[in-house]
TrEMBL record:
It comes from the Bacteria. This is ChbG/HpnK family deacetylase. Its cofactor is Mg(2+). One of its GO terms (biological process) is carbohydrate metabolic process. InterPro entries: Glyco_hydro/deAcase_b/a-brl, YdjC-like. Keywords: Carbohydrate metabolism, Hydrolase, Magnesium, Metal-binding. It comes from Aquirufa rosea.
C-alpha cells in the first residue's frame, strides 16, 4: 500500500512540474472599416486560428459587423476605440458632437500622431479635449454593448488610448466602469509579432511559424493583425504610406486560415485562447 501511495505521490509531483503550454490570443482588428474586412475577419474566426475580433463602432460597415457577429455568437469581441479615420477614400465621424476631434470636414482626423504625409492632420497637433474623448469613448462603448452585449474587452485603434497619460487613465477608468478588460492591464501578456519578412503570404506564414517556435511555456501572448480580402473594394482603400492594403491584408487572412500554421500550433502544443478565457475580472 505504501508503494502505491509513493508512486501516486511522485506521479502527481511530476505532473505538477510540467509547465503550462504557451497561450496565444490571435486578434483580428478593424472590423467595420470595409465589407471586405468584415468577411475576412469572420472567415479567419470560423475557418482559422483567430480568437478575437475588434470592432470599430463609428465605422461605416459597423451595422453589417453587428449582423455577422450576431450570427456567430461564439466569437469573442472587443471594442476597438477609435479617434481617427485614416483612409483617404472612405471616412467616418464621431458618434458625438466632439468638435475638438473633428477635422474641417467633420470627420475624425486621419492620424493620431504627427505624420509627414498629413501635416497638421493628427489629433496631437490639434487642441483636443479630454472631455470630448470621454464622451465619445462612452458613446462607442454603450453602442457596442447595446448591439453586441457579449463584448469582453477594450482595445485602441492606432494606439489612440496612449495619446497621453490622461487619456490612458481615462480608458482604464471606463474599462473598469463598464466591466471590460483593457488590453493587457489586468492580465499581463506579451505582444508577439512576425519573426522574419512579411511582404508576401508565404513569407508571412513562415515568419508567423518562426514566431510560434519562440513562444515560451507558461506565458501568455497576443498577436495582432488585420485580415482582409484582395478584392476591388480593398484595392480602393489606402492612405499615403500604406498603398498595398489589399495584398497585405489578404496575406493576413492567408496566415490565419493556413493549414500549415494550424499544424505548427498543434505540433508545438500552443493553446489558443481569447480575452474572455483570461478569466473573470478581479
Amino acid at each position: 500500500m505504501n508503494k502505491v501511495w509513493i508512486l501516486l505521490f511522485w506521479t502527481f509531483a511530476s505532473l505538477a512540474q510540467i509547465p503550462e503550454p504557451p497561450r496565444l490570443i490571435v486578434r483580428g482588428d478593424d472590423m467595420g472599416y470595409s465589407h471586405s474586412g468584415n468577411l475576412a475577419l469572420i472567415q479567419s474566426s470560423l475557418q482559422g486560428i483567430q480568437t478575437s475580433i475588434e470592432v470599430i463602432v463609428p465605422s461605416p460597415w459597423f451595422p453589417e459587423a453587428v449582423q455577422l457577429l450576431q450570427q456567430h455568437p461564439n466569437i469573442d469581441v472587443g471594442i476597438h476605440l477609435a479617434l481617427t479615420s485614416e483612409w483617404d477614400k472612405v471616412k467616418w465621424r464621431p458618434l458625438t458632437e466632439a468638435k475638438s476631434l473633428r477635422d474641417s470636414d467633420g470627420y475624425f482626423f486621419p492620424m493620431v500622431y504627427a505624420n509627414k504625409n498629413y501635416p497638421g492632420a493628427a489629433i496631437v497637433e490639434n487642441k483636443f479635449s479630454l472631455a470630448d474623448i470621454e464622451v465619445e469613448f462612452r458613446a462607442q462603448i454603450e453602442l457596442a454593448k447595446k448591439k453586441i452585449p457579449r463584448i469582453s474587452h477594450i482595445s485602441a485603434h492606432m494606439g489612440c488610448s496612449r495619446i497621453n497619460d490622461e487619456v490612458n487613465q481615462l480608458t482604464k477608468k471606463l474599462a473598469k466602469e463598464y466591466h471590460l478588460i483593457f488590453e493587457n492591464t489586468l492580465y499581463p501578456f506579451e505582444r508577439a509579432s512576425y519573426d522574419g519578412p512579411k511582404e508576401t503570404s508565404a513569407q508571412k506564414i513562415d515568419s508567423f511559424i518562426n514566431m510560434l517556435r519562440n513562444l515560451q511555456a507558461g506565458k501568455t501572448y497576443c498577436f495582432v493583425d488585420h485580415p482582409g480580402l484582395d478584392d476591388a473594394e480593398l484595392r480602393a482603400i489606402s492612405h499615403v504610406g500604406y498603398e498595398g492594403v489589399a495584398v497585405d491584408r489578404q496575406g493576413v487572412t492567408d496566415v490565419f486560415t493556413s493549414q500549415k500554421v494550424k499544424d505548427a500550433i498543434e505540433a508545438l502544443g500552443i493553446k489558443l485562447i481569447s480575452y474572455r478565457d483570461l478569466g473573470p475580472l478581479p
